[in-house]
Amino acid sequence: MTHVLLEKNGQVAIATVNRPNALNALNSAVLDDLNETLDAVAADEEIRVLVLTGAGEKAFVAGADIAEMSTLTKAEAEAFGKKGNDVFRKLETLPIPVIAAVNGYALGGGCELCMACDIRLCSDTAVFGQPETGLGITPGFGGTQRLARLIGAGMAKQMIYSGKNIKADEAYRLGLVNAVYPKEELMPAAQKLALSIASNAPIAVRACKQAINEGLDAPMDEAIVIEERLFGSCFETEDQREGMCAFLEKRKHEPYQNR
Ligand code: DAK
Question: N or C: which terminal CB in the chain sees fewer CB atoms within 10 Å?
């Protein structure tokens, strides 16, 4: 895989979209490599948190590849949209948390990519936007759905209809990102957060991700049942027993074993 680099530091892995000459634009080859990377991460039981970022100085991901898209037929465009949506959905439902470290432009498919992650941190140089209507198309990798869920329909419609980009401070104000850092502090901050998540019980973290994701799409009466089921699934695990015994015995818990 050349278009996505995967680096593993113990329980935290960093995946870097690596096509800096095209500002990491997503073509079919990048989507294929991202798909393979996610499969590899999901299969590696040691990895507890994934950080996703972009190569180079300017961009997280500057969108789907406009050159590749420009000549697509309707049928090919639908297939391309499905390919991207399948990969983004795999990312969104990966059984571990994913932190997007948005280190520059996150436009179109790039904004959509970071929205499929659990948590977004960004550099003060980051720029977000859904410029598709200016290109004669709609967002195609989930932008019309995830942006409205994250920042509300009113602001999502304004961003998508106008195609206007927003800077990091505005993205923070809207709740699109959780925090903004000076460029050089972004990756250390993402890794620090990743380590703190990785130190918690993986079965519980995974259950929380599933409960939040599935519950958001369900009516409250059903959502609360999803939570009850996942809450129950943590019990009788080694990590639940150790976590609670450690509290009662007033000691620090042993490292969690994912069992
Ligand atoms: N696609 C292809 N190449 C791109 C690119 C992109 N999205 N963004 C940048 N590049 C390439 C540039 O063409 C340039 O290549 P060379 O000319 O050097 O060969 C190189 O990256 C450096 O870019 P610039 O020279 O333009 O760099 P600047 O710093 O001057 O400008 C910029 C940076 C980010 C403001 C500018 O590159 C830009 O505006 N880029 C396009 C941003 C954009 O519009 N992104 C949204 C793309 S549309 C769907 C599926 C998916 C989608 C929609 C529908 N279905 C199937 C339904 C998704 C759509 C999108 O993401």
Answer: C
